[in-house]
Design a protein that fits this description.
mainly alpha, two-stranded antiparallel ribbon, 13 helices
Amino acid sequence: MPAWVRNGREEGGAALAAGAALLALDQVQRTAVAWLGTMRLRQALAAAGATGSLLRLREDLAAFRDAHHLTRPADNPGPAGHVHRAWRSLASQPARLDAVGLARLVGPLAPAVTHGDLLAAVGDHGSGDPVTAAATAAARLRAAKPGPDGDVLGLMLADLVLAARLGWAHPVPLLATALAQPALRARLLRRPGPRSNPDWIVACQAGYATAAAETYVRARDLAHRAEALTNAMRVVRTKGASHGLAALLADDVVAATHLAGLGSERAARRFLDRLVALGAVREHTGRATFRLYGL
């Protein structure tokens, strides 16, 4: 991936860089390989961490990860867990801009935003290039609902519009991850208005260029890791191992308690620790207990 794409700059403008990066990522998306679930949900974690500061949360990525994975679905995961789960929900839903698709965005993260607000923000999403359509939808929602909640939901809506326009099966959290770049953060958090709207679109183009390029590089790394995991499974003789393989490829990380298909939590721990010893899986917490494993 050339540096001018990763940096969101080129002589032809940020639009060209965004198009090049999204073209590369689009080729990955259309392969429909099993590890795309890991890629999307890892992006969701990065987006949660990047937007947490907007919502005055001080947790690091490890805390955002723990808040979801170490809490039962029916329990309250706390503010960090709610943000992480909102981004995971976006990354898991179909890329649809109909009533069902938009309704999934409305939740505890931005209770003041209505379905009507989202419909008005999307507007005629068929006009313009995908990045411009995504940026315009986000700008409309942020203008209608100023404040941190509207900003975060605007970033989510942008990714949903982009994915729908590109024909992806599921959205990939992208634009929010560009907030990790100080120069892009200042531009992306600037309040878009009638006069600054062109500047906002250029900022989104640069943001998507950087985010899509970085995600493409991560995707290539995940492809190698997934191949190593698949090869390692040939020497692992565990009942229900196929269930464990599918779970590891579908999510950012898994805990032993998530692998019910292996018979018991103890069997799942042995299975996961064996894969770590083979170099096919990483343990992401560094803890002796409550461990989380993934590519």
